[in-house]
Specification:
Length: 242
């Protein structure tokens, strides 16, 4: 059976795509799976903030042929039975520019295939589709999910990104709404999964008693078509009444 590969695509900047990707990776690690997370958001480089210690080689160096994929992997120090490994973007502007060229972007697809040979699952953090790396990421994976914040802007921009994925022959398999418990949250039409905000530090998926953990696990199981066999605490009577 082939390794499930999934791109999580933000409908806008600040949608919570990187955080959602990290939470899903932590969930898979907690279930004893190995998972690689690749950063296709070269401009924002958000995944790098989840890497402990100094980053030397990164995904842009892989894209321009300056390093091998395995040297740009950084294992998270989560206390889980599985392996969670990040391949972040962390580079000077000059290399970022070169990494966005068509040939370099295609190397990102090669890295996804390499990861699929090494890990049980592959997740790719993808920004709103507007540049070569995002396009390559979409064509390199076999499953796609749009991530939309439960805000008016998120709901308004969702159709545009849905259309772009269709234009690239990589239609969205699902929509994940984030921060759905915010006081001013709005309904995201067509959302298949609803995720509360969670603790800003995170990842909350490591705590089975958090509100975010079971919601993320349910989304992961549906998006990757796997049974993670994870246990979560049922809310007590006082919790339900309170």
């Amino acid at each position: 059976m082939s390794t499930p590969t999934l791109a999580l695509v933000g409908v806008a900047g600040g949608a919570g795509t990187t955080r959602t990707t990290v939470e899903m990776a932590a969930t898979l690690g907690r279930a004893g799976r190995s998972v690689a997370v690749l950063d296709a958001a070269f401009g924002t480089q958000g995944l790098a903030t989840h890497v402990r210690g100094r980053i030397t080689d990164d995904v842009t160096a892989v894209a321009v042929g300056e390093t091998a994929f395995e040297t740009a992997l950084y294992d998270a120090d989560y206390d889980v039975p599985g392996r969670v490994s990040f391949c972040p973007a962390h580079a000077p502007f000059e290399r970022l520019a070169r990494a966005k060229a068509p040939d370099a972007a295609r190397a990102l697809g090669t890295a996804v295939a390499d990861a699929a040979d090494r890990f049980d699952h592959v997740l790719v953090d993808v920004p709103p589709v507007a540049a070569n790396p995002a396009v390559e990421a979409l064509t390199a994976v076999d499953r796609h999910a749009l991530v939309a914040p439960a805000t008016r802007r998120g709901a308004d921009l969702l159709p545009r990104q849905r259309g772009r994925l269709r234009d690239l022959d990589a239609p969205a398999d699902a929509v994940v709404a984030t921060r759905t418990d915010a006081p001013d949250a709005v309904s995201v039409e067509g959302a298949d999964h609803a995720l509360p905000a969670g603790d800003p530090v995170g990842p909350d998926a490591l705590d089975p008693e958090s509100a975010l953990a079971p919601a993320v696990a349910a989304a992961v199981e549906a998006l990757l078509e796997v049974d993670l066999d994870l246990d979560f605490e049922e809310p007590g009577l006082l919790d339900r009444l309170g």
